[in-house]
């Protein structure tokens, strides 16, 4: 079914007199209609841009102005990328896919190697977010490694659709390379886990009781200057029923750190709730497991050959440098397509 037909079908359902007999279903339908309408509008805008550029390119095809021709070609390539991204966004299916997100990377088996691997992944995701999608990236919390790198880092990726794009990156990422920290130049294997959860907005209801929270303040560590280290501006929130702990220390303001930590807690609790719901529906879900061989989603091999391979979809590339510089969309699209096919197969069974 095309987007136009889908929108017509949704319009018909939304105009039904019995729409609000089931408030939850009504809310879901209206949200889906809004999403499909926005995607359709975007495609129409892109279609017009493509038509205008194609006509302009035809008009100046015999021109000797190489700079102008290069500009038109660059515009066409940019448009091609945006069309490809918009096609991927058609596979967004979660209610929070349009939201910003939190992304946490934690080091696993591998010691110093894994702490360095966390930094490499942080750079990769930052490049992907900022260069390929024009999202902004803000550091929420970080824990330094014992010798180098980071044990853990949490960033907030801000932009429409950030969660939809990033959510399939959750899982274990494995690196194989010749260690720059090993004088014997031996091959090492490192692991890091990536966890993605959406920033929960007012449209998503997550109930958190004050009595279920323990809030601690402490002196921030790492970057931030002497003022940060001398005041208890950092905030740690423990959700007692689940045992979940979140923290934030990036701002000099305890109030701002508390607000950001609370937002992160809501995000994690929402993600946990969604995973439980998917379990009950027998859909693919993510289990918390030891950061090692279990639940790997992607391997990054830099020696003895060079290859990045997604273990869920089979998508792979030998251009490791491009991937480490943020070129992840092909992997993400393949993962989203796999998820969409799984849902179709389940609904038909």
UniProtKB/TrEMBL annotation:
PANTHER family the record matches: CLASS I PEPTIDE CHAIN RELEASE FACTOR, PEPTIDE CHAIN RELEASE FACTOR 2
Biological source species: Anaplasma phagocytophilum str. CRT38
Domain Prokaryotic-type class I peptide chain release factors: 219-235
Description of post-translational modifications: Methylated by PrmC. Methylation increases the termination efficiency of RF2.
Localisation: Cytoplasm
Gene label: prfB
Keyword Protease part of the UniProt annotation: no
Keyword Protein biosynthesis: yes
Keywords, ordered alphabetically: Cytoplasm, Methylation, Protein biosynthesis
Name listed for the protein in its UniProt record: Peptide chain release factor 2
One GO molecular-function entry: translation release factor activity, codon specific
NCBIfam families listed in its UniProt record: prfB (TIGR00020)
């Amino acid at each position: 079914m095309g987007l136009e037909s889908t929108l017509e079908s949704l319009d018909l359902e939304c105009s039904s007199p019995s729409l609000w007999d089931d408030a939850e279903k009504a809310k879901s339908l209206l949200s889906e209609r809004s999403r499909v309408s926005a995607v359709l509008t975007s495609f129409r805008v892109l279609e017009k841009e493509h038509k205008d550029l194609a006509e302009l390119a035809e008009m100046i095809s015999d021109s000797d102005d190489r700079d102008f021709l290069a500009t038109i070609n660059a515009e066409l390539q940019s448009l091609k990328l945006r069309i490809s991204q918009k096609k991927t966004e058609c596979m967004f299916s979660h209610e929070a896919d349009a939201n910003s997100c939190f992304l946490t990377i934690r080091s696993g088996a591998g010691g110093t190697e894994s702490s360095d691997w966390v930094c490499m992944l942080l750079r990769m995701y930052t490049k992907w977010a900022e260069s390929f999608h024009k999202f902004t990236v803000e550091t929420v919390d970080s824990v330094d490694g014992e010798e180098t790198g980071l044990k853990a880092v949490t960033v907030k990726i801000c932009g429409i659709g950030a969660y939809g794009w990033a959510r399939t990156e959750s899982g274990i990422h494995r690196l194989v390379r010749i260690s720059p920290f090993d004088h014997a130049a031996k091959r090492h294997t490192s692991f890091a886990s990536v966890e993605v959860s959406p920033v929960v907005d007012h449209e998503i209801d997550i109930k958190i009781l004050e009595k279920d929270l323990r809030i601690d303040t402490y002196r921030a560590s790492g970057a931030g200057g002497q003022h940060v280290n001398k005041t208890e501006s950092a905030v740690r929130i423990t959700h007692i029923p689940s045992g979940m702990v979140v923290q934030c220390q990036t701002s000099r303001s305890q109030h701002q750190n508390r607000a950001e930590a609370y937002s992160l807690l809501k995000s994690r609790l929402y993600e946990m709730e969604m995973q439980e719901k998917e379990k009950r529906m027998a859909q693919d879900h993510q289990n918390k497991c030891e950061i090692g061989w279990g639940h790997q989603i992607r391997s990054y091999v830099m020696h003895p050959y060079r290859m990045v391979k997604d273990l869920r979809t089979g998508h792979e590339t030998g251009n490791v440098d491009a991937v480490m510089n943020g070129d992840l969309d092909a992997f993400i699209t393949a993962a989203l397509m796999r998820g969409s096919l799984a849902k179709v197969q389940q609904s038909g069974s």
